[in-house]
Amino acid sequence: MSEQTPLLHYRLTTSTGPKPRGGSERTGLQSGLGRQNSTRKLGVMFGVVIPTLLSMFSVVVFLRVGFVVGQAGLYHSIAMLLVAYFIITMTVFSICAISTNGALDAGGAYYMISRALGPEFGGSIGIMFFLANVCGCALYILGLVEAILSTFGEPEESDAVSAAFHQSLPSGYWWCLLYGTVLLFLCFIVCLVGAHIYAKATFVIFIIVVTVLVSIFVSFFVVEPTAVILPETSLMNNTNTRTSNYTGFWLGTLKGNLFSDYTVDYTTGDVMTFASVFAVLFNGCTGIMAGSNMSGDLKNPSFSIPRGTLTAVFTTFITYGLLSLLAAWTCDRYLLQRDYSFLGDINVWPPMVTVGIYSSAMSAAMSNLIGASRILYALSKDNLLGGALALAKKTSRTENPWVSVLISWLLVQVVLFAGKLNTIAGIVTIFFLLVYAALNLACLALEWASAPNFRPTFRCFTWHTCTLGFLGCLVMMFLISSIHAFASMAFMLLLFMLIHHLGPISNWGYISQALIFHQVRKYLLMLDVRKDHVKFWRPQVLLMVRNPRTCTGLMTFINDLKKSGLYVLGHIKLGSIGGMRPNTLILGFYDDSTPEDNLCNETLSSTVFGLDKACPASEPGQQPSPFFPAVRGAGDSKDLQEEEYVSIIADAVKLGKNVALARYFNQFNRNEILGLKKPLGDQSITELFVDVWPLNLLNPDSHGYVNVCSLFLLQLACVLHETRAWNQAKLRLFLCVEAGGSLQKDEMKKVQRMLKELRITAQVHVVVWDQVVALHWQRRGGRGQESLGQNSHDDDEQRLRQEGEEEDGIQSFPHITSHLTDEFISAVNSLICRHGSPKPAVRFLYLPHPPTDMSCYRTYLHQMDLLSKDLGPTLLVHGVTPVITTFY
């Protein structure tokens, strides 16, 4: 082994890579419910825990402990370990959050970042991640070759007489290349067969590494104090001290190793500092993506990734901490500083540690090779570089991307020709850290955007943890190498521009649009006309034109005149213009109740004027006007007739707007319901419920819960539950079934599976409604109930397609106003009331589509009145747009 071989050969992280998704983005539940992939075979242990443990341990667990403790001392070592694992844990929280936010398709880190931050950013990070895995594989292969030659290689001519019998392997550039090629080919064969063989191989290596670690811990307690002969390469400054002491557990040794003593690293000749030693330690703490990047091969990624990754992180933290303590307690400082492989010297069977080093290096090389192939396959499937990666899409019958494995193997082989990779060793680690920073940024952006569909089941994260993880990764990048950090960012920018020009337009959704909407809304709400001042005046123009075709000169002139002010062109054009248009119309319910003035004797806090009085004039001579018009009296006529009211609902649905009718919210006292205003001394805690009835109760034929309207209703209830004031509420989902039916258990399981994939926590209540439905069949000529629930056999995707076809038309389903009796609707209303104990704070009901025949409008409104009568605060909801995705 070369005397100047840097420790970086044993400090690089590994991670397995993605097996990508297709180019299209699946939304709703058309791809989610009950989706099983026969190629997904790995569980928590084989798919996440073992790969992550081996990636975080690698060979450095056997070679780094002495270096860190010997240079930094025990106190600084523990402090470094805590800081490093704090940064890593913050990043793991982000990984867990994104991985539990719906079904995670193949692609690992690349999939998470690209689907959140867009194809340009995600693609550039993905390419860098691919290159990092390729170079990392080559680094571990070369490191393994040098480790083998240090034990079995031919000695130099001056030491030929004292050479042992096993030191017979020839050395040199071409011999090293041959050894590396053979080892790489073994890794290639394993990865070419598939992920299941890779998992079995890593399990064998895991058993070996665990056995070696156990022998190390045992050796600290059973090996007697002894003098250890130091390696020739560590003897510097012509010192004559060729040995150092393993003292066993001795308090004097511990006291001598408590504080730092930074000196020269004998492998590089550089004087160590706190920052340089911390960088070495942090390099070994990475590798946290090894399990999550196997997402395409996991049975249940959302279940396996959080549990497996956190388990591996906790295990490695405890292991590193214990090894640091035992080394500081038993080994002389000089031994720790001059022999980084001292664990083998003091082992009960010294070759055991060597076997561990070889096994860990082989595992790391395989991990990087299979990781690189999965990332390349993901990039090719998403067509980010056009047809440049078309060949990498090919897979075997078991969906193993063998072409991507072949290409990755060839690239690693090319890198092996470079021989020593000291020059790129640092930038590989920087690439990994940049990926982790991007993942934290993706999670932070999703959290800041307040997207309703971002509701991960993993709750141990906030925007604070994402920010700390992001900043921590950036700091570590520049701490390890500021030059490499700047170079990697410049390379990422170059890739960003390349993908922007070559890549296709994606339908993944852009987080930038969600953030812009969030910020624009926030700043619009901050505008306050009372704070206007003449020195900040600017023109705000409304230009009325009949036909813009004849007014282009005037329009361009006024555009110059506005001086960055508001410019509204007063010409009506129908179309989907604007990014902040409403998508949901909410109306108060049309009934005969007398309106109540809830603002009587209330004051506006910003003006201290009563809302039931006139607003003072803002300018001299201006007549005062009330804040709001007076409440309609009991004898006053309504502004709208019944037909006009229903016409508004029908027109809104035709325009593609979701509609909700709000009833009995005059009974809704937010402070009382949410417990914000309690009588003095009342410390009681009352349960808060939100009831959801997702079935169209007035049409038992539509016995299905997986349709656009039902999912929209569920989404609204979930959005309410996600708000801070309502997060203590419990959602109750009522499932209407026939008594004793064979479909009852199937429907129950299907709904529970749907809720799990939608990340919605709700209590599912089964409601038997045979007697109610019987009234419906009697009205329709005594038709039997054998068809009840038949639709539940339909495939979920077929339901969605039918629903989409229904919603595109004027009429969603055969109208029911003509054959529904008041007796049946009243029975449905009574059914809802009976299952409302304890009384909910609010109910969500399915609002049927209004009829197309205007003569039925009065009947329709009468039926909605009977359905929601005396239910308390209720929202009758009709959704027409998909709002839920199981993929993010």
UniProtKB/TrEMBL annotation:
Gene3D superfamilies: Amino acid/polyamine transporter I (1.20.1740.10). It comes from Austrofundulus limnaeus. This is Solute carrier family 12 member 9. GO terms for molecular function: potassium:chloride symporter activity. The lineage of its organism: Eukaryota, Metazoa, Chordata, Craniata, Vertebrata. Belongs to the SLC12A transporter family. It holds the Pfam family AA_permease. It is found in: Membrane. InterPro entries: AA-permease/SLC12A_dom, SLC12_C, SLC12A_fam. Keywords: Membrane, Transmembrane, Transmembrane helix, Transport. Residues 792-803 have a biased composition (Basic and acidic residues). It is a multi-pass membrane protein. The chain crosses the membrane at residues 42-66, 78-104, 125-152, 172-195, 202-223, 271-290, 310-329, 349-371, 401-418, 424-449, 461-480.
